[in-house]
Amino acid sequence: MTDKLEQKSANRCHGGWVKRFSHYSNTLDCEMVFGIFLPPQVEQGPVPVLWWLSGLTCNDENFMQKAGAQKMAAELGIAIVCPDTSPRGTDLPGEHDSFDFGSGAGFYLNARRAPWSQHYKMYDYVTEELPALVREHFPVSEREAISGHSMGGHGALVCALRQPGRYASVSAFAPVTNPVDCPWGEKAFSNYLGDDRSEWAEWDACELILAGKSKQGLLVDQGEADNFLDEQLKPGHLEKACHLQGVPLELRRQPGYDHSYFFIATFIDDHLKYHAEHLFAS
Amino acid sequence: MTDKLEQKSANRCHGGWVKRFSHYSNTLDCEMVFGIFLPPQVEQGPVPVLWWLSGLTCNDENFMQKAGAQKMAAELGIAIVCPDTSPRGTDLPGEHDSFDFGSGAGFYLNARRAPWSQHYKMYDYVTEELPALVREHFPVSEREAISGHSMGGHGALVCALRQPGRYASVSAFAPVTNPVDCPWGEKAFSNYLGDDRSEWAEWDACELILAGKSKQGLLVDQGEADNFLDEQLKPGHLEKACHLQGVPLELRRQPGYDHSYFFIATFIDDHLKYHAEHLFAS
């Protein structure tokens, strides 16, 4: 049991700091790295946190380097924490063989099947262990919001839907909305959770909404030129589930935009302002 | 002789497009790739161009992915072109052995020594061939400005100083200001140009200023926590040369900032606004 952080880098950015830390995760039973942006306002006192969950093949760095979020986050006074996308440093059989399963593809769930269940508990990591660690070491408040991209968009929606009332707001970019019904999700869920599909629903945004788990509003941006739109992301499924359950969904279909960080960079300021409205609401 | 472009990628970004193209460069005698950001205003007519010259180890992608410049460029209506930092696909003896010479380290000069002189003519490439190609294929005007980082900051200053009146404005981030008097410059110049140091001066910003080549104002940002500050960058040399020759220099020393793209991302909007003031001046 340790809650020690080792600082790997620190870069001044927009009057605040982008920092990376490694630590031993008890939840994941391996060494992990995360990134944090601390806005200049931390010098005056605790700031709220936006959790950013990245997509397949990403790690803690992609968002910090490519989204261009720090300028607006510094203006608004919001810290951003970027966890990695899977356990690291383990070498389970087949773990590094494909981009959509294993390393870089933790899917923000708690695996039940061996050997994955020993390490792949990304849900507990991003909702429990890492938040506790961050609150222990940085001047952040209890107020938190969550967002993410693709697999991380799925993660953000699922984290918020499973814990109604926890996050002030939730948003997503091109999320995998219905993993039980797309190739990425079916591959990951069958390996992490087993073949009993009835156990998959608790990790699926559409299923959680249809089960009435939460009525919290959702902001989702989806590029219409996204290569994964029809086969993997299926925003129409989310739209239908929200409509059936009366969940307020702002689904913005963005013509011409694809699945890349250029898409995220274009609309991240809108999401940050959306989260600020909720994080700073009295 | 060919001026054909092959599109490698196109990503919608901030209402415009980030695109990458490969082409055969006659100047460099090899296949090259460049990136271009076209702001939404190109739909109404030609827009001015900012040339961005990147630093050691970079290619055409670093700035486009990490600087977060597209939002402001889209607002202002400025295209940005990012050339690569050296010839590519050649295999000269020792070309790929070090980060500060050869591939990724063209230093934006025209080499005189064999075997480098066959390919390493980055000055002619970024000031002649590429601008002609870009004007042929994209809706850009004759108005141009230039900026860059580190080795590319050196490049931007030298391009502007060698052609007074050509660029509406010039700026730099952490430029190598006096390459004839620092390890990176001495290594590169002796290999590319030969041992006669009298021939180095025409590729050195401080020397060009001291020779009275141009009185154009310069905007320079320099992080005070930059690891390369004292040994390689030497902003004091630039300050002294500008002072002696009455060249208006706005040298902004930024406390706590380092040499990274987080530093560039923090101040790029200031530079874009500076260039816009000059590019759109009547």
TrEMBL record, chains A, B:
Keywords: Hydrolase, Serine esterase. The keyword Manganese does not apply. It is an enzyme of class 3 (hydrolase). The keyword Mitochondrion does not apply. Its EC number is 3.1.2.12. GO terms for molecular function: S-formylglutathione hydrolase activity. It comes from the Bacteria. It catalyses: S-formylglutathione + H2O = formate + glutathione + H(+). Belongs to the esterase D family. Serine hydrolase involved in the detoxification of formaldehyde. This is S-formylglutathione hydrolase. It comes from Kushneria aurantia. The lineage of its organism: Bacteria, Pseudomonadati, Pseudomonadota, Gammaproteobacteria, Oceanospirillales.
